[in-house]
Amino acid sequence: MKDVITIGDAMITFNPASTGPMRYVSSFERKVGGAELNVAIGCSRLGLKTGWISCLGNDEFGRYIYNFVRGEGIDVSQVDLVDKYPTSLNFKEIMEDGSGKTFYYRANSPTTALTIDTLDEAFIKSTKVFHITGVFPAVDQTKNVALIKHAISLAKKNGVLISFDPNIRLKLWSKEEARSALREFLPYVDILLTGVEEAELLLDTSNPLEIIEKSKGFGISYVAIKQGENGSIGYHDGQYIEAPAVKANKVVDTVGAGDGFDSGFIYGVINNWSLDRTLKLANTIGSMVVSVSGDNEGLPYLDDVLIQLGEKEFIER
C-alpha cells in the first residue's frame, strides 16, 4: 500500500550559475523539476511510500530524470520513456533577493502519450492520497483535464483521498481557461492546498474565512491557505488555525517552497497529526526549501525537519 501517488510532467530545470536577468547569464546547472514530481520527492524524503505516473522522452534527459526519481525511492513502474516527444525543459532566472522567473519549453510534452487507456486503476487504488495540481492540465488542456477527471473518478471509486494544489501557471494558460477547468475538480477534492491569489481566481474571494466556507460548500475536508512569509491558515473539522511563518535562514530560491509545504501537510494528514502540528511542519519545510537553490534540492528528510522543530536532538559528532 502506498501513501501518495502523483501524476504530471517532469522537466530538466537549468539553474543559472549567477543571479540577475537571464539574458546576461552564460552558464547553467542541470537539475530536475516539476510540481507534481517535487511533491512526490518531498513525501518520499519524509518517509512516505510514494508513486508517480508520467511519461518522459526516450532521450538522455528522460533517462536522467527516470534514474534520479527511482533513486529517491519513488515507484516509477507507471513511468514510460516514449519516442517522438522530447523531455520538457525550463530555464530559471534568479534575482539577488531569491525571487525569480521560469521560462518553459514544454510544448509537445512526453506526457502527451498518457491517455485514459494507459491509466492503471490498480496502481491508483493502491494509495491513500492521490495528489494533483493545476500544472499538468495546463500542459495540454485539450486532453489532460479529461485525463485528470478520469483518474479522480478511479481514485474516488476506490476510497482514495484527493489532494489538490491549483498551482496556476499563467504562462501555460489564461485565467479564464484555468478557472473553467480547475473548478471542475473541486467537488472531488478532500485536501485543498492553495495560495490566496489562486483561491481568489477559483472561488472569487481572497478572504480566508470565505475561502474556507466556499471550500466546505464543495465538500472539501481540509483547507490549507499558503501565505508565504505570512505563514499559513488551516481548517479541518470545525477547527481554524492561523500558523505563523517559520523564518528561513536565508532566502536563496523560492521555487519549490509550495511543493514542500504540500508534502508536509499531506504527511500530517496521513499520520493523523493535529492541524496545528501539521501546519507547523508544512511551514517549516517551506522555509527550509527556500534556503537551497533548486526545485527539490532543499526538500528535507524527516529527521532534519524534526531537528529544526526541536523535536529531535542534533548530534554533530
Key words describing this protein structure:
about 325 residues, alpha/beta, UDP-N-acetylmuramoyl-L-alanine:D-glutamate ligase, 9-stranded mixed beta sheet, 4-stranded mixed beta sheet
Report on this model:
This protein has 317 residues and is α/β, with parallel strands linked by helices. It has one domain: Ribokinase (UDP-N-acetylmuramoyl-L-alanine:D-glutamate ligase, 3-Layer(aba) Sandwich). The protein is 35% helix and 25% strand. The chain is built from eleven helices and 13 strands. It has helices at 35-45, 60-71, 121-125, 135-139, 141-157, 175-182, 196-203, 208-217, 257-270, 275-289, 302-308; strands at 2-7, 11-16, 28-33, 50-57, 75-82, 88-94, 100-105, 127-133, 161-165, 191-195, 222-226, 232-236, 239-243. The protein has a nine-stranded mixed beta sheet, with helices on both faces. It has a four-stranded mixed beta sheet with strand order 3-2-6-7. β4, α2 and β5 (75-82) form a beta-alpha-beta unit. α1 (35-45) crosses α9 (257-270), α7 packs across α8 (208-217) and α9 (257-270) runs antiparallel to α10 (275-289).
